[in-house]
């Protein structure tokens, strides 16, 4: 398991083992999950994966945790990509 990087106000990145054979890189961000923001954070996650020299195994998955009436700055969203070491 890898620790979170703390960028003080910027989105957080992590690479974690979530199962016996699954390893996922993810980025968490707040705000509305529009197509534009998903594209931006997916691209940022791909840069993180490249910098850590990981191989992509799956297309991105998206997680949205809040009901529609939650204010945008309280919303929590994630982009996840299954990865493996080189």
Keywords, separated by commas or semicolons:
elongated, alpha+beta, 1 helix, 5-stranded antiparallel beta sheet, 5 strands, 86 residues, disordered N terminus
What report would you give on this structure?
- By secondary structure, the protein is an alpha+beta fold.
- It has one domain.
- The protein contains one helix and five strands.
- Strands 1, 2, 3, 4 and 5 form a five-stranded antiparallel β-sheet that branches.
- It is elongated, with a radius of gyration of 13 Å.
- Residues 1-6 have low confidence and may be disordered.
Radius of gyration: 13 Å
The major pleated sheet works out as:
5 strands, antiparallel
How many beta-strand elements?
Answer: 5
Beta-strand fraction estimate: 25-35%
Quote the average pLDDT: 83
Task: Give the tally of structural domains.
Answer: 1
Which series of helices and strands comes N to C? EEHEEE
Name the helicity range.
10-25%
Distance between the termini: 16 Å
- Counting DSSP H or I runs of 4 or more residues, the number of helices is 1
- Ranges with pLDDT <50 over ≥5 residues? 1-6
Which structural class should the secondary elements be placed in?
A: alpha+beta
Please tell me what the overall shape is: elongated
Quick description:
With 86 residues, the protein is α+β, with helices and mostly antiparallel strands. It has one helix at 35-51; strands at 12-17, 23-29, 54-56, 61-64, 77-85. The protein has one helix and five strands.
